[in-house]
Amino acid sequence: MGIFLRTVEKVPCTVEVSHKFESLHAHVKFNNGAVVHPGDEVLVSGEPISAPYGEVVIEDREATIKRATAIERLWTRLTGDFEFMELCEFSFSEETTL
Questions:
Q1: Handedness of CA 51, 65, 14, 47 (dihedral sign)
Q2: Distance between CA 43 and CA 66 in Å, rounded?
Q3: 15 contacts 27 by C-beta, under 8 angstroms
Q4: CA distance 36 to 59
Q5: Left if phi > 0, otherwise alpha if psi is -120 to 50, otherwise beta: which for 33?
């Protein structure tokens, strides 16, 4: 990992897409034990996976991990808490009674 140099890794992975009443999710597991750190980018190759309702689809794919530079990683750690607020949903509606 360099200060200004990004590295790229191609790793085998398993993609699990669930479209069930109990769980709606998509997970990627790196088969070689690779770990994603703050600021890293992951791109899974292949066609989009669509699971029919009530099913779980599991496929083996290849993922490309673009490692963040030391500066990008530091910036992500410093500003990550502020960006979390973008995920929050706030409602400022009037209270009405029927």
A1: positive
A2: 8
A3: yes
A4: 20
A5: left
Question: For residue 98, what are its two tokens?
Answer: 């029927």
Q: How far apart are CA 12 and CA 55, in angstroms?
A: 23
Whole-angstrom distance between the N-terminal and C-terminal Cα of the chain?
61
Q: Are 29 and 62 in contact (CB under 8 A)?
A: no
Alpha-carbon torsion 51, 55, 60, 66, what sign? Answer: positive
| pTM as predicted | 0.71
Strands (E), 1-98: 8-19, 24-30, 41-44, 55-66
Tell me the per-residue pLDDT of 66-88, one tens digit each, with 9 for 90 and over: 999 988 888 888 887 776 666 66
Length of the chain: 98
